[in-house]
Amino acid sequence: MGMLRGRVVVITGAGSGLGRSLALAFGREGCRVHGLELDPGRAQDLGREAARTGLGVMGHPVDCTDPEALAAAIRDIEAREGPVDVLVANAGTVVSGLAETLPEEDWEHILDLNYRAVVRAIRCVLPAMIRRGQGHLVVVASMAGLLPLPTVAPYCATKAATAMLAETLAIETVGTGVGVTTVCTGSLRTRVLEDGRLRLPEGIATRLRRAMAWGSGSPDALARRVVRAVRWKRPYVFAPRELWPLWVIRRLSFRLYLAVLRLVFRRPLKALRQTHPAPKEEVDGTHPVRE
User: Fold this and answer.
1) In the annotation, is 155 catalytic?
2) pLDDT tens digits, residue range 130-145?
3) Is 151 within 8 Å of 262 (Cβ atoms)?
4) Interval 170-181: pLDDT, tens
5) In this structure, what are the phi and psi dihedrals at residue 208, rounded to the nearest 5 degrees?
6) Are 88 and 136 a contacting pair, CB within 8 Å?
7) pLDDT tens-digit profile of 193-249?
8) pLDDT level of residue 67 (50, 70, 90 thresholds)
9) Which domains does the chain have, with CATH numbers?
10) Cα 192 versus chain centre, distance
């Protein structure tokens, strides 16, 4: 994409963590940045912080899982600023727990935010980008979309879907002038666990937070890499950090990967199932039995 100054950038989930870092990083490049954020307070804080440093960054309270609200927000931005040059689909959440114990509402919640909202945001801007012959999409996936990990099956599944979506679009858009970047990283120092839904005993949840904190990376440093990737139309930002060993094992042999994770997690998962059994189901398998 070359020079970024003056470009219109829309970022979903821009109120905290990586999204906030991305908004400020693009703002430092002279972009006109619009951060969409569910929490009105965080959206206001983003705008205030940018104003203190003279950056062209605005925060907008928008529920990205609401198709009409998302589309209306992007239309409003385009009416005032012009076409969207860069879309960063960053909004996401974590749902953690044993797959058989998670309620359907949790599956729907994470599907809405981690996958459907990404698709809807892309559909709002991609046709116009292709008509103009320029633009860039950034899809924030995760190493969890490339590595199966226990107790986060919904997160792994949705991030795998977004990663594959972005990789496929990178092929489909060849020759159109539109670039696509997939971002896959290990843990970052963000509030993703605090804001997510952890259906785990407090002791296990605490260990999970500590494990993610160990070796976690800076969202500001990753944001700078993403900005460079957009400038040079790089298709991937890959930063596995603490997951490098698992990534190497997975690439060498999935059988070996399974053996390692089964060895490590067999006992903790068995204990978790004993303390948090799945709800009993009626014969049709759809309704819990009340005892």
Assistant:
1) yes
2) 999 999 999 999 999 9
3) no
4) 999 999 999 999
5) -65, -45
6) no
7) 455 556 555 555 555 555 555 556 788 999 999 999 999 999 999 988 888 999 999
8) very high
9) 8-243 (3.40.50.720)
10) 10
Distances (CA, A) of 149 to 139, 154, 220, 240, 274: 21, 10, 26, 14, 20
Write out the two tokens for 226. 């993403």
Residue 129 tokens read as 């980008």
